[in-house]
Amino acid sequence: MSTQPFLDQVVLITGAGGGLGRSHALLLASLGAKILVNDPGVAVDGRGSGVRPAEETVELIRRAGGEAIADFNGVETEEGARAMVESALRGFGGLQAVINNAGILRDVSFRKQSAADWEQVLAVHLDGSRHVTKAAWETFCSQGYGRVLFTTSASGLYGNFGQSNYGAAKLGIVGLMNSLKEEGAKFGIKLNAIAPMARSRMTEGILPPEILQRLDPKEVSPVVAYLASTACAVNGQCWAVGAGRVARVAIVETEGWRAPPEKVWGAEDIAANLEKITDLQGAEALSNLMEASAKLFQK
Ligand code: NAI
């Protein structure tokens, strides 16, 4: 990659007023990108609002010689998403990449969770990722190029106590990406996801201080820079990123057990073949529904 791989490119980053989003914005701006810095400046739980977080990111970029515009819309409405894309198109004359990073937390055990705690978290993470991607989609399709980055989480991929709303939203994002990678490929659009681990106000109360100390957001952003660039060679992948480690995460299917032909089989066969059904040795990541259905009839 050249030293300015994003020269003449416009990148929209949601939730870029702090934490990981700001780190991505500063790195991409230093690599030549013009950044639409979106952030309504809400608290971790999504309440309140403020212009300073987005404005400060813009100031930091400009002070370093880069170009940026602040936007204060929320990602959870289609209108907000359309407005931020229009702002990028009007202000910079184009759009090459969208980084869906905005997020909130409403951690609570399932027993105590209200419908509002559920809906608001899904609205920001899942609906928001959909709305912003959708708002950029026509531009990407008609120019035959686009990069979309989603932000998922180990919480959704693996589970975490008190985060059923967040986990559902974060894995929903992976489902959204899985379908869109099929639709976007013929238009030159690549969509990938990161599951980051980084120090931010979001993780302050969750991870122990000695771990947090080793989780600089700057150790996540280079991966964003790669996946959002023209050089990106993968589509529809999810990567775990943090503390200088980058690894692919995949949903896999085991070799499995096949009922002998003509045999009438029942629950007792499942119990007898549990090992074969669940053993991950030789498990495979399948690339789409067609591959998954073909697998059923493979010899
Ligand atoms: P953060 O709280 O510092 O950043 C989130 C940003 O999103 C905030 O600036 C907030 O104002 C903004 N935001 C909230 N609601 C919004 C809305 N409706 N529209 C636009 N912006 C909105 O937290 P952090 O850690 O930087 O999180 C960034 C992303 O990374 C989130 O999606 C989070 O779920 C995800 N993530 C972070 C992890 C970590 O270790 N920090 C772990 C896994 C995922």
Strand content: 15-25%
Task: Give the count of helical stretches.
Answer: 11
Helix content: 40-55%
Kindly state the number of beta strands. 10
Form type:
globular
Bound molecules: 1,4-dihydronicotinamide adenine dinucleotide
Low-confidence stretches: none
The description of the largest β-sheet is: 8 strands, mixed
How do the SSEs run, as a string of H and E?
Answer: EHEHEHEHEHHEHHEEEHHEH
What does the radius of gyration come to? 21 Å
Mean pLDDT across all amino acids: 97
Major sheet strand order: 3-2-1-4-5-6-7-8
Structural category:
alpha/beta
* Ends distance: 43 Å
Overall description:
The protein has helices at 19-30, 52-63, 78-92, 115-143, 154-158, 164-184, 209-212, 221-227, 267-272, 274-278, 289-296, and strands spanning 10-13, 34-38, 67-71, 97-99, 146-151, 189-196, 238-242, 245-249, 252-253, 284-285. The termini are far apart. Helix 4 (115-143) packs parallel to helix 6. Helix 1 links the parallel strand 1 (10-13) and strand 2 (34-38). The protein has 299 residues and is α/β, with parallel strands linked by helices. 40% of the residues are buried. The longest helix is centred in the middle third of the chain and has 29 residues, at 115-143. It binds 1,4-dihydronicotinamide adenine dinucleotide. 1,4-dihydronicotinamide adenine dinucleotide is lined by residues 14-15, 17-21, 38-42, 44, 46, 53, 74-76, 101-104, 124, 128, 151, 153, 196-198, 200-203.
